[in-house]
């Protein structure tokens, strides 16, 4: 983690200079090549982090810096030392956007190019807009954060990849939609839906992964030893027409 602290110092002193960008790139490559790790994630979760790829790793590093930067100055106030989620989220979005613009993975006009490049919109929910071009093996999602902070939204992608390798997400960039909402752009394998999964099928699937119904009366939320699963309703879990097994497309995943 010393290297991560060095990156934080570089961002604080130089902003996103050429040398700082190179520093983040090297750290990202070290993670992808197994030379370093992030203590936030265990070994299995690191595989999910690596699949999410370099854009996500770089952005998550910047988001971690944004969170750590509160209260580190010698004249930090109590508010700075104990920021609200809103303050953290605002700073993370600002710095990740700045970094992404420097890296060339910020798409200011994504909504105007998405249909022509990735195909028509085939679905839209509270969290994601989905685009698909016939014949492609993947869909493209424009995913907004429904988490307390952007950093937690990035963690959720990593955790999804760990739990549901059949529908792993790879981050390719970021944008803001017409309402100004920060969105993560990612790809995910296309799944042909035979039908929606039943509650019993979802129970069995998550039980095999170490989760149990948390008995909150909603029937769509589960708890394990390390993680929460929420929003596991049938519209987010398909029966794959090829394997005949339930496959989770989207859910809310958080550390306990």
Please provide a brief summary of the model:
The protein has 256 residues and is an alpha+beta fold. It has helices at 2-14, 18-32, 43-68, 78-81, 85-103, 110-118, 150-163, 199-207, and strands spanning 121-124, 128-131, 138-144, 170-176, 182-189, 193-196, 212-213, 222-223, 227-230, 237-240, 246-248, 252-255.
Topology:
Elements: H1 2-14, H2 18-32, H3 43-68, H4 78-81, H5 85-103, H6 110-118, E1 121-124, E2 128-131, E3 138-144, H7 150-163, E4 170-176, E5 182-189, E6 193-196, H8 199-207, E7 212-213, E8 222-223, E9 227-230, E10 237-240, E11 246-248, E12 252-255
Antiparallel strand pairs: 1-2, 2-3, 3-5, 4-5, 6-10, 7-8, 8-9, 9-12, 10-11
Could you walk me through the main structural features you see in this protein, from its secondary elements to its overall organization?
- This protein is an alpha+beta fold and 256 residues long.
- It folds into 3 domains: 2-103, no CATH class; 110-189, Phosphorylase Kinase, domain 1 (2-Layer Sandwich), CATH 3.30.200.20; 193-255.
- The protein contains 8 helices and 12 strands.
- A 5-stranded antiparallel beta sheet has the order 1-2-3-5-4.
- A hairpin with a 3-residue loop joins strand 1 and strand 2 (128-131).
- Residues 73-78 have low confidence and may be disordered.
**Given the helix and strand composition, which structural class is it?**
alpha+beta
Order of helices and strands: HHHHHHEEEHEEEHEEEEEE
Kindly provide the radius of gyration, computed on alpha-carbon positions and rounded to a whole number of angstroms: 19 Å
Total strand count, please? 12
Tell me the β content.
Answer: 15-25%
List low-pLDDT spans.
73-78
Major pleated sheet: 5 strands, antiparallel
Shape: globular
The span between the termini is 22 Å
User: What is the count of distinct domains?
Assistant: 3
Strand order of the largest sheet: 1-2-3-5-4
Instruction: Give the % helix.
Output: 40-55%
Number of helices: 8
Average predicted confidence as pLDDT? 92
């Amino acid at each position: 983690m010393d290297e991560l602290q060095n990156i934080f110092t570089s961002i604080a002193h130089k902003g996103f200079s050429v040398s700082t960008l190179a520093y983040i790139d090297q750290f990202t490559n070290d993670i992808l090549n197994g030379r370093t790790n992030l203590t936030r994630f265990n070994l299995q979760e690191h595989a999910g982090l690596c699949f999410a790829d370099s854009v996500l790793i770089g952005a998550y590093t910047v988001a971690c810096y944004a969170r750590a930067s509160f209260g580190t100055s010698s004249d930090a106030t109590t508010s700075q030392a104990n920021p609200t989620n809103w303050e953290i989220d605002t700073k993370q979005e600002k710095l990740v956007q700045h970094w992404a613009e420097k890296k060339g993975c910020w798409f200011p006009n994504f909504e105007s190019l998405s249909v022509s490049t990735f195909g028509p919109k085939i679905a839209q929910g509270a969290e994601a807009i989905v685009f698909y071009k016939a014949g492609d093996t993947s869909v493209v999602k424009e995913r907004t954060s429904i988490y307390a902070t952007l950093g937690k939204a990035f963690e959720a992608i990593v955790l999804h990849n760990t739990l549901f390798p059949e529908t792993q997400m790879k981050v390719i960039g970021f944008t803001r939609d017409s309402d100004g909402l920060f969105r993560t752009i990612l790809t995910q394998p296309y799944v042909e839906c035979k039908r929606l999964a039943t509650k019993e099928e979802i129970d069995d699937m998550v039980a095999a992964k170490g989760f149990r119904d948390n008995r909150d009366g909603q029937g769509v939320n589960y708890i394990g030893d390390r993680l929460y699963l929420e929003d596991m309703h049938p519209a987010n879990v398909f029966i794959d027409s090829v394997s005949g097994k339930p496959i989770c497309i989207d859910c809310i995943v958080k550390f306990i």
